[in-house]
Write a sequence for this structure.
């Protein structure tokens, strides 16, 4: 399938657009050209509901005239001179941005590293239909499951080219396979639903469709007959799927843009202990088969593994060139293309696991709450105040005894991070990866 995307031809057109922008009067410029193909199949009750194939191209030219900058986007690289002229004309009438500019030449990648980003395996719509049907059948076979919420299989192939006027030109191809299924348990007003899924760079790494379906069915059945609980303070364990959101809140708080805007509750905590001793959080753009692995950042700059948190101490912000200049710091290769320029952000962010299994952690906790699902986005990035709707299971004597729903978990992320204890069950499949997490003394608002 890789022969569908000719990166050599795309690189050539991007380089010609760079030349056209310079000829039109740009002092500097860069071009991001992206192309891709995506295929998906949705199945319900064994029948194909929808098959979708999408192909698209997009190019963004960013130009600099002094400290003024502007960007234009198009769906093809055909009329290069006109595109370049429009971008330069726009830049000449925009306000100056003292932090705008390309990555410094000494930060540019000179040799593109080889990463495991591309699975050459060909997947046909018929195969994808078989995967989705197998997952759905396995979910429906679970005792207590009353109906299917549908199953879907997907595949995508994307090609990215970045060319700059100061000598960088790089490209890469990346693939992604996915499979998900939703199961419904119970009847009438007592119905509950849950899901399971997998998403991988290589098809060979995907979980068996029947296993994904079985897990979805079992999760739905476990949620039947939930009860409401009274307001209390208790220990909470976030299972790994729900725990990923906590790491996402951390990523937002250490984003250089939030630091520059003074909208992060961690803005004054660099080189201070934010987590308990022993806690380690790593961001690695070269993580093998990682969901956000990439050979260079959105500016063509070098990146390396960053120990964001070492032994509980915060060590880095995520920085692109512009944000680093604003903060008076050195960039660290975390630029992502966004809108008319770049924004800083994480790549493959991992909270490293502890030594205690989830089962052992539940036993040691004794009584508390296991959170399996979160609702809403109640987090104040400035103060760290945290309030999320949740569902899960009451834990008594280390065992789940009753499904619960319609509760709210509240606290402050500064305190939560300081008390956070990771289990050993790291779910390493995704760009944001965590094990299950214990946080003692959380406030639960119930009925």
């Amino acid at each position: 399938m890789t022969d569908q995307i000719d990166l050599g031809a795309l690189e050539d057109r991007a380089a010609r657009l760079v030349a056209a922008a310079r000829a039109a009067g740009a002092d500097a410029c860069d071009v991001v050209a992206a192309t891709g193909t995506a295929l998906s199949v949705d199945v319900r009750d064994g029948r194909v509901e929808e098959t979708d194939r999408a192909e698209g191209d997009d190019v963004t030219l960013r130009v600099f005239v002094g400290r003024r900058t502007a960007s234009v986007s198009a769906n093809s690289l055909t009329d290069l001179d006109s595109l370049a002229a429009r971008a330069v004309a726009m830049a000449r009438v925009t306000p100056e941005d003292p932090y705008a500019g390309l990555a410094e030449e000494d930060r540019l990648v000179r040799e593109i590293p080889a990463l495991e980003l591309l699975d050459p395996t060909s997947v046909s719509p018929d195969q994808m239909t078989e995967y989705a049907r197998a997952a759905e059948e396995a979910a429906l076979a679970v005792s207590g499951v009353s109906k299917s919420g549908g199953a879907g299989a997907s595949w995508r192939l994307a090609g990215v080219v970045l060319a700059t006027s100061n000598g960088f030109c790089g490209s890469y191809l990346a693939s992604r396979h996915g499979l998900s299924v939703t199961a419904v348990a119970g009847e009438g007003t007592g119905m509950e639903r849950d899901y399971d899924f997998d998403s991988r760079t290589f098809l060979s790494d995907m979980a068996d469709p029947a296993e994904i379906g079985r897990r979805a069915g079992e999760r739905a059945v476990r949620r039947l007959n939930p009860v409401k609980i009274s307001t209390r303070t208790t220990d909470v364990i976030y299972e790994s799927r729900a725990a990923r959101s906590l790491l996402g809140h951390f990523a937002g708080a250490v984003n250089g843009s939030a630091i520059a805007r003074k909208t992060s509750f961690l803005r004054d905590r660099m080189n201070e202990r934010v987590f308990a001793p022993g806690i380690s959080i790593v961001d690695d753009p070269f993580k093998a088969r990682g969901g956000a692995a990439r050979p260079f950042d959105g500016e063509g700059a070098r990146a390396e593994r960053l120990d964001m948190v070492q032994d509980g101490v915060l060590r880095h912000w995520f920085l692109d060139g512009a944000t680093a200049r604003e903060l008076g710091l050195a960039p660290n290769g975390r630029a992502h293309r966004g809108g008319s320029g770049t924004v800083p952000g994480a790549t493959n962010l991992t909270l490293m696991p502890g030594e205690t299994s989830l089962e052992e952690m539940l036993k040691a906790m004794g009584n508390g709450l296991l959170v399996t699902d979160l609702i809403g986005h109640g987090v104040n990035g400035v103060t760290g105040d945290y309030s999320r709707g949740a569902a899960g299971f009451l834990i008594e004597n280390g065992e789940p005894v009753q499904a619960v729903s319609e509760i709210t978990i509240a606290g402050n992320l500064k305190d939560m991070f300081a008390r956070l204890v990771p289990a050993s069950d790291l779910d390493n499949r995704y760009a944001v990866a965590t094990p299950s997490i214990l946080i003692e003394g959380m406030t639960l608002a119930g009925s």
User: Anything to note?
Assistant: The chain has nine helices and 19 strands. The mean pLDDT is 94. Residues 2-219 form a domain with the PmbA/TldD fold fold (CATH 3.30.2290.10). The first strand starts at residue 28 and ends at 44.
